[in-house]
Amino acid sequence: MSLKAIHVSEVPSLDHFPENPSLICSSRKANNKFVVVGHRGHGMNMSQSPDLRFSALKENSILSFNAASKFPLDFIEFDVQVTRDGCPIIFHDDFIYSEEQGVVYEKRVTEVCLSEFMSYGPQRDTGKTGKPLLRKSKEGKIHKWSVATDDSFCTLQEAFEKVENPNLGFNIELKLDDNLFYSSDHLSRLLLPILQVVSDIGNDRPIIFSSFHPDAALLVRKLQTTYPVFFLTNGGTEMYHDTRRNSLEEAIKVCLEGGLQGIVSEVKGVFRNPALVNKIKESKLSLMTYGKLNNVAEAVYMQHLMGIEGVIVDHVEEITEAVREMMKPSNRDADGTKPKPNFSDRELSFLLKLIPELIQH
Is residue 335 part of a domain? Predict the structure, then answer.
């Protein structure tokens, strides 16, 4: 469902953010850097995947964040929601699944209090056993949430306090349910606690806000002007009742009309409409991408050649290494601004033929 339009002029602004603007576009242009972002830290979990990297570390956890920080990432991305008692927590899904006496049950994350949220999964207190943690796949199947190295849930405040590298940026996705209606007041109540934590303890850490929900992105931009806000879009690969979410062209309009700083698109949407990369750049907007193709080094390389400014990835180790090789001075032209291909003409020709096939799946 589409969200109700927000009358942001009626919402009070937070006026005590630190004077530390951290626009990704400004920092990138200063050093011609290609930005790499760790998806949910060290990568998302897909426990049913045969690729064991998707079940190595618990996603959206302090363990995952600090593991990701060992690699040359610019940011980690994670999903923030607010509990019933007003605490910003880090969790991707709309529902928590568990079981009691063999009966599976679900609870909406935003309808539980902090103490109950923290009672699921591994516990920090020695000897304390948490409630079983299950997960629902996209196919609708309920299965045990299994990872090789587990960790407890965490709050947004704990992320600021416990992520060891103070220079590692936070890409804070404002997570909302696609199937819910949000009134203006409700949306404000969800966003203000998040902004308050950032205001109180964000310090000098680079921060980006992002959201798939246009009204949430516009409102967080209205509430603060220190940190950049990016609009997340599927780029036309999925359709929604809210037409603002259905294409890169609509995403550009949302950003320009609302004063947002950039777009984060599903990479397939960009590959299907490569001409829009220049339009986005001409609109002085930053462009980053997310999606499974960003775990393929060749696809990341092509995006760099296209002028895309950064990628959100799951395979942190492999892609940071590929980008490091790609950006080596020996692989750049004399003026230092344009990379020389690391692939033969035959390889590049094959890649250009392969991408249209990949984006169909």
Answer: no
| C-alpha span between 85 and 190 (Å, rounded) | 11
The residues pairing with 190 across neighbouring beta strands, listed in sequence order, are none
Quick check: is 351 in a domain?
Answer: no
Asked if the model's pLDDT at residue 150 lies above 90, the reply is: yes
Query: What are residue 95's DSSP bridge partners?
Result: 108
47 Ramachandran zone, left/alpha/beta (phi>0; psi -120 to 50) = alpha
Is 303:278 a contact under the CB 8 Å cutoff?
no
Total structural domains within the chain: 1
**How close are the terminal C-alpha atoms of the chain, in Å?**
25
**Residue that the structure tokens 């000897």 belong to:** 127
Q: Is residue 48 part of a domain?
A: yes
- Give the mean pLDDT of 300-311: 94
Residue 327 has pLDDT above 90, yes or no: no
What's the chain's Rg over C-alpha atoms?
Answer: 20
Structural domain boundaries, residue 129: 35-327
Query: Phi and psi at residue 263, in whole multiples of 5°?
Result: -125, 140
pTM for this predicted structure? 0.88
For residue 17, being part of any structural domain is answered with: no
What's the pLDDT tens digit per position in 29-47?
A: 445 689 999 999 999 999 8
Residue 342 confidence (pLDDT) above 60: no
| CATH number of residue 197's parent domain | 3.20.20.190
Lowest mean pLDDT among 102-106, 110-114, 138-142, 351-355: 351-355
